[in-house]
Every structure is written in structure tokens, then in C-alpha cells.
Write a structure and sequence with these properties.
With 156 residues, the protein is an alpha+beta fold. It has helices spanning 5-25, 38-56, 59-64, 68-74, 77-87, 89-92; strands spanning 94-98, 104-106, 109-121, 125-135, 141-154. The protein is built from 6 helices and 5 strands.
């Protein structure tokens, strides 16, 4: 069966329409992400403010973002900051912070959440961190712990 000019024209027209329909259905615009929940925003703010306080050398403010159990364990900002400098150097020398996702609850408790953080220090070395956040009776969030996961990546 031979195709006529008319058949070829119709097939070409259908191919153009199919291409146009595919382009219309999948625009080159990234999907919109829903706004962060209030607790995610508050948790990110606490983490950022503590890291900013470390950067300014403001030990008292950095210590104020620690949960009550951490504050009781270290008894003062000097001891707390000395521990951070010794064991959490990427946090103390952070120059870039990224939050790759939203928080998640720990053991079905909305008062305890984990926030993943990507940290780049002043030398360009990347570190992954998991911040354990604890909701306080007044509704604020405090840092109850931090677990660092070293990587071999450099931020260029």
C-alpha cells in the first residue's frame, strides 16, 4: 500500500501536534515546593543563629541555643564552646549551610525532630550533620545534639 502526498502531510501534521502537546504538558519550569511548616522554619533559624554566634565568637548566645540537658552537662558557655571547637570543628568554622530537606520526627514524638544539614567549613571541606532538636515547654526549639558525618567532598 503506497502512501499518498495527502497521507504524508497528515502524518507530518500529527507528528507536529504530538510534539507540541508534549512540550505543553512538560514545561521547563521546576515544580513549586510547598512552604515550610512553622517548626521547620523555627528549627532552621535556631541552627543558623547558633552557627552565626560561633562565627562572631559570641559564646553566651551560642550556648543559649542548647537544650537544657546539654546546658546542664556543660555548665557554662566556655566549656561548651571548648567542646564544640574540639569535637565539632566544622560547625564552629562553618562558612556555608544548606538544609537538604524538612525535619522528621523521632519515634513518633513531635517534640523531638531531626534536621539534616550540609556544612561547608572555611577550608571548603563538606560535612553532613544531623541535628537533634527538642521542643521546649514555651514552644521554642533547642539543639539537643548533633551528629557529624565526615565526607571527602570539597566545595568548589
Amino acid at each position: 500500500m503506497a502512501l499518498t502526498r495527502r497521507d504524508i502531510g497528515v502524518l507530518a501534521l500529527l507528528a507536529c501536534l504530538a510534539t507540541a502537546a508534549a512540550l505543553v504538558r512538560q514545561p521547563n519550569v521546576p515544580p513549586r515546593t510547598p512552604p515550610l511548616a512553622a517548626h521547620d522554619t523555627a528549627i532552621r533559624t535556631v541552627i543558623l543563629k547558633q552557627i552565626e554566634a560561633f562565627g562572631r565568637g559570641d559564646d553566651e548566645t551560642a550556648f543559649s541555643f542548647a537544650a537544657p540537658d546539654i546546658r546542664a552537662q556543660f555548665r557554662g558557655p566556655e566549656v561548651f564552646v571548648a567542646m564544640v571547637k574540639a569535637h565539632y570543628k566544622p560547625v564552629y568554622t562553618a562558612s556555608k549551610i544548606d538544609f537538604p530537606g524538612r525535619t522528621r520526627t523521632i519515634q513518633q514524638s513531635p517534640e523531638m525532630r531531626v534536621q539534616r544539614v550540609f556544612i561547608t567549613d572555611t577550608s571548603g571541606r563538606s560535612t553532613k550533620a544531623r541535628y537533634i532538636m527538642q521542643k521546649q515547654p514555651d514552644g521554642s526549639w533547642k539543639i539537643a545534639g548533633c551528629h557529624l558525618i565526615e565526607t571527602e567532598q570539597l566545595d568548589i
